């Protein structure tokens, strides 16, 4: 059953300090839920898989949130070292993931039972 099915459940492990998932359409706050549930099209390319957590997802202790490695460190994620190509890949990734547009993860998050 696909993850978007109303009756399916998926468990993802979030960093304990991750912010709560924002409302659909609200600005991204780096909760990481979407990228931990499944990679976006950019993540599929770098993770080489269509399910599971994206390999490009990075936790930032300084910001207390998850960041897309293809946006903040495309050279580190891909191994590309040419500065102009790293900038181009980062710009492509920002546009591809619609950075700054808002949360589009139609996921419901709930804390685990205690």
- Please indicate the percent range of residues in DSSP E strands (runs of 2 or more): 5-15%
| Ends distance | 27 Å
Number of strands: 2
Pattern of helices and strands: HHEEHHH
- DSSP helix fraction: 25-40%
Please identify the structural class as seen in this structure: mainly alpha
Gist?
The chain is mainly alpha-helical and 114 residues long.
Describe the structure.
- This protein is mainly α.
- It has a domain at 33-96.
- 31% of the residues lie in helices and 7% in strands.
- The protein has 5 helices and 2 strands, in the order ααββααα.
- A two-stranded antiparallel sheet has the order 1-2.
- Strand 1 (57-60) and strand 2 (65-68) form a beta hairpin.
- The chain is globular and about 50 Å long.
- The model has no long low-confidence stretch (mean pLDDT 89).
Tag the structure with descriptive keywords.
single chain; 114 residues; mainly alpha; two-stranded antiparallel sheet; 5 helices
Record the SSE blueprint.
Blueprint: H1 33-37, H2 41-47, E1 57-60, E2 65-68, H3 69-72, H4 74-78, H5 83-96
Antiparallel strand pairs: 1-2
